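I can't quite decide. Please look over this sequence plus structure tokens:

:::
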Amino acid sequence: MNVVGAVSGWRRPLVLGLAAVVFCATQGFGQSLSIADLITQCAGCHGADGNSPLPKIPSLAGQPAFFVLNQLFLMREGVRKVEAMAPFVKDLKDSDLHALSGHFSKLPPKPSSEPIDAALVKRGTEIAMQKKCASCHKPTLTGDQQIPRIAKQRVDYLIQALTEFRDSKREGADTLMSGAVAGLSDADLAALAHYAASR
């Protein structure tokens, strides 16, 4: 029996996700590759259509172009530290950043296959209204300019990101978000994630 075949239940997505990250990191990302090749390598983790099939890997489809451009730039310059992305972005040219961000912004976002809890969506709606999430992310949660789309984003990724913001563990990130979610419980963050993903 192969390694993946031997993995069952919740372990299988984790192993597949880690395998994809390792595969992507060994492919020489950004070393004089064409934009088509760069997009193909992005697809290994973020999905061929920009909608991530992997746990805790964000979907990029439909993200505002400036948001993607800004994040890639911050990661390339080492301001936003994302270890898994470091080998991918270190050799990207400015023209690559523009091309990649433009590409992903034009792809239609789709919900992931994760189950959405209706009760959590209801609670998340209430919290989002209290926290005025729409004032930055727009009422549709589609984002704008440097503000990301959170509608149809992966639930597990949103929970991870919100937790990192709350706990001040997201290096190089906008501190406004840390203030926005300060004091929220894990249950509150899960509710917000289900709400955003359901939009």
